[in-house]
Amino acid sequence: MKGRLYIILLLISYCCVASASKIIPLPYFDRDMVSQERGIQMPVAVCLQYQRAKETRGNSIAPFRRYGFHPIQSADSTKRLWGFHVIRDSAYTKSKPLYRLFKRHDLLSFAIIEDNVPNGATQYVFWWKGYYRQFTSDLKRMGFTMSEVPNKTNALRFSRNDLNIIVEFIIWEDIYVMQVKSK
Asked: Model confidence over 25-78: pLDDT tens digits?
């Protein structure tokens, strides 16, 4: 009897975390927890397909929830914001670019700034170089060619002649921005 009671108490301690006045159950192991360990597993093809859908159908349903993103309240009605492990930067001023609005929680943090208009560009903001490497290698594998952006020393452009979509990477020392837009 004591052995069974000990096992039950041990299981309860593993399944619950005690808070000041209540017991909070831990979440089940699911896709979101895997995402927290490995980061966002969103292929660049999804970003391109979404931009194409916005171009052809106008506003389209964003696929970002499927990859662990959560909507973030925006004061600007022409923008939709999505985030994974990001918070608003309290030092942000409107004189800075909008992608500086976010402050990362950890290296795997990821944010999306979406123009809420047909043919509007979508910016993918991240801090980990692994995301950059994943996206650029996927684009090269899909036949995109890389070129420099005129008048910018910190930007690279990926394009394909048979597609009406351009992908630009803006690279800063502390942040990466991938902008997917129509030509």
From this structure: 333 333 443 344 567 788 999 999 989 888 887 767 788 888 889 998 877 778
Q: What residues form DSSP beta bridges with 71?
A: 82
Spatial CB neighbours of 93, under 8 Å, sequence gap ≥ 6: none
How far apart are alpha carbons 122 and 142 in whole angstroms?
A: 20
N- to C-terminal Cα distance for the chain?
72
Phi, then psi, of 152 in degrees rounded to 5: -135, 125
Sorted by sequence, the CB contacts under 8 Å of residue 124 that are 6+ apart come out as 47, 110, 111, 112, 135, 177, 178, 179, 180
pTM: 0.76
What residues form DSSP beta bridges with 102? 88
Paired residues of 81 in beta bridges: 72, 113
Please answer whether residues 113 and 74 qualify as being in contact, where contact means their C-beta atoms are separated by less than 8 angstroms.
no
